[in-house]
Amino acid sequence: xxxxxxxxxxxxxxxxxxxxxxxxxxxxxxxxxxxxxxxxxxxxxxxxxxxxxxxxxxxxxxxxxxxxxxxxxxxxxxxxxxxxxxxxxxxxxxxxxxxxxxxxxxxxxxxxxxxxxxxxxxxxxxxxxxxxxxxxxxxxxxxxxxxxxxx
Amino acid sequence: xxxxxxxxxxxxxxxxxxxxxxxxxxxxxxxxxxxxxxxxxxxxxxxxxxxxxxxxxxxxxxxxxxxxxxxxxxxxxxxxxxxxxxxxxxxxxxxxxxxxxxxxxxxxxxxxxxxxxxxxxxxxxxxxxxxxxxxxxxxxxxxxxxxxxxx
Amino acid sequence: xxxxxxxxxxxxxxxxxxxxxxxxxxxxxxxxxxxxxxxxxxxxxxxxxxxxxxxxxxxxxxxxxxxxxxxxxxxxxxxxxxxxxxxxxxxxxxxxxxxxxxxxxxxxxxxxxxxxxxxxxxxxxxxxxxxxxxxxxxxxxxxxxxxxxxx
Lengths: 151, 151, 151
Fold this sequence. Notes:
Three copies of one chain form a homotrimer.
Chain A: H1 4-30, H2 34-38, E1 41-49, E2 55-56, H3 58-66, H4 68-76, E3 78-82, E4 86-90, E5 93-106, E6 109-125, E7 128-138, H5 143-149
């Protein structure tokens, strides 16, 4: 007999862990913790962020947080706010979709400097859920960004 | 003996499913999937969105997504960002409350063009949780909008 | 034998309850329910909100919601939008971290008038989870705010 309760319990824990993983991105990025941001991904994970070369692997992802664009945002004051993710579990794999809004402080207060669509691919590892790929595209009218949010 | 664990497990699953349902609205709306947006509601569900005639039934809800106001927002680039919902379960019924922020791209970048209060009424159906009514009111100082967020 | 399922079920319920508690802040604040906002904290809970004297105890926290700054925001139209919290449970204690964005209506539409980092300390009480301390600091480039989001 399959213990359905155990499967249901694990599915709930998976949802909770994945939501927590994605929610961690903003606070870790805004506190400048490049190593912790990179560790959200697998060793060979990919972060394809609109306007930057595709970052492949943890060193490249950490470099985005250590780089001049992100450091300038932090010096101005910034918030990388991610929306509530829509998560679809498939066993040891999962996908998630959400908006992201980067607010940065300027002379006249905070402004949304990036508003983007995000699609995440995740995998269960021995150390817990990790991101294998995150695609990010600015919602500026292009079909490419809308496609990341499609079911 | 009532199996309390089973009830607790189901309540957690209900919370997860309702959160996912509400979180789906933004990505589905911003990808222009009118049929999928409408299917978040029951067949005779109501979406009372501030500034528009009350949409009753899935065809009317889909028409909002297919309509000129929404299509113009999509062409400019837009994000319908919903806040974390506060969910109250009552058996096969539930209510939820959250903010919604619509960011749209203009000549000078993205701007919050709508900031609203939302109250959702939901029902458990044979196909899962569905929205029976969503009330939306702009937070522009009117008591009507604040009332949607009251306990 | 320890019933691991019971512990896992309770941990999931704790996460759900804490997320709901934090998500309640915005709707309760924006509907002007000072008593309900204060009741999210323990009797002697602290709300250290950037730019205001530290509020110690429920009466002081309620006074922030009843005070002229918050009442003016409500009259203009405002949304206190909190991000998805990153929650860390340690038995009967927990911490959570999230962004908060206050949008207020002005002559030219809504603007983000406060963008802040938040760190919450929570405790399990006989009445459920309550906040013992919330630290809030504006993300305006100061290290103090970034530190609230650090792991």
